[in-house]
């Protein structure tokens, strides 16, 4: 049995980007953080995501315009899905 | 209002990385109080947010009492609750394990929970020991038992740490 308000690890993984973007609703944010208190695996995952974002943010890469547009289009589609 | 706040070692907020100064008022950084307000625990919230350090915090301004935390406009760390340390955390874990053993240890599937909680305590994973103890209670007696177990944990912490509100 699982309480409705409690997130599973898979849900935490799915929500991590929204959490880092500060885009979660307050209740979801609380549920997310409550899960982190007791879940070492998700703490590590969040830590790795933060590290990855920081590292990638320092990389200077010029994408070909066509590739960049394809990627943006794919992300837009993902958001809508 | 006097409340409590669990922090990572060095008085660091575990989710934001904010380094809390001691004795200085800290104001919420924006109008969205729930996201940017000062988050703290009443006694009953403590088992949900366990971390390395426990601090007494004074809250001021608008205070929103939510089901599992309080959120305020301003907060000031008053003093560290020094009684909360690795030794007491382990003792708390053993308290959770003992209650789990008593509640579900004699049941075929329930004994698995006892093993889980014992293992978490033995490896110093105290927050999940408390969670698993509450989950074991829920498994046997329904969702109300989860909350009941969390209340028992909060009561134990308050008594052993001499906390009041």
What does this structure look like?
The complex is a heterodimer of chains A (81) and B (165). Chain A is mainly α and 81 residues long. Chain A has one domain: Arc Repressor Mutant, subunit A, CATH 1.10.10. In chain A, 73% of the residues lie in helices and 0% in strands. Chain A has four helices and no strands. In chain A, helix 1 packs parallel to helix 3 and helix 2 crosses helix 3. The longest helix of chain A is centred in the middle third of the chain and has 18 residues. Chain A is globular, with a radius of gyration of 16 Å. Chain A starts with 8 loop residues before the first helix and ends with a helix. Chain B has 165 residues and is α+β, with helices and mostly antiparallel strands. Chain B has two domains: 79 residues, no CATH class; 76 residues, no CATH class. Helices cover 43% and strands 23% of the residues of chain B. In chain B, strands 1, 2, 3, 4 and 5 form a five-stranded antiparallel beta sheet that branches. Chain B is elongated.
Structural key phrases:
heterodimer, A: 81 residues, mainly alpha, Arc Repressor Mutant, subunit A, B: alpha+beta, 2 domains, 5-stranded antiparallel beta sheet, 5 helices, 23% strand
Short account of what is shown:
The complex is a heterodimer of chains A (81) and B (165). Chain A has 81 residues and is mostly helical. Helices cover 73% and strands 0% of the residues of chain A.
């Amino acid at each position: 049995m699982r309480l409705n308000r409690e997130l599973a690890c898979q849900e935490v993984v799915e929500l991590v980007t929204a959490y880092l973007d500060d885009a979660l609703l307050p209740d979801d944010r609380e549920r997310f953080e409550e899960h982190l208190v007791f879940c070492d695996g998700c703490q590590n995952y969040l830590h790795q995501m933060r590290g990855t974002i920081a590292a990638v943010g320092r990389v200077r890469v010029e994408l070909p315009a066509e590739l960049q547009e394809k990627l943006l289009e794919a992300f837009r589609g993902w958001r809508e899905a | 209002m006097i409340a409590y706040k669990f922090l990572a070692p060095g008085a660091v907020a575990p989710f934001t990385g904010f380094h809390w100064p001691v004795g200085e008022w800290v104001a919420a950084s924006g109008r969205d109080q729930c996201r940017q307000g000062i988050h703290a625990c009443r006694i009953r919230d403590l088992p949900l947010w366990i971390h390395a350090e426990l601090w007494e915090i004074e809250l001021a301004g608008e205070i929103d009492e939510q089901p599992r935390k309080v959120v305020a406009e301003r907060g000031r760390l008053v003093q560290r609750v020094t009684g909360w340390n690795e030794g007491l955390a382990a003792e708390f874990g053993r308290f959770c394990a003992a209650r789990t053993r008593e509640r579900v240890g004699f049941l075929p599937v329930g004994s698995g929970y006892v093993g889980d909680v014992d293992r978490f305590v033995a490896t110093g994973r105290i927050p999940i020991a408390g969670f698993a103890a509450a989950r074991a209670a829920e498994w046997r007696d329904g969702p109300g038992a989860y909350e009941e177990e969390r209340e028992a944990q909060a009561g134990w912490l308050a008594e052993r740490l001499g906390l009041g509100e």
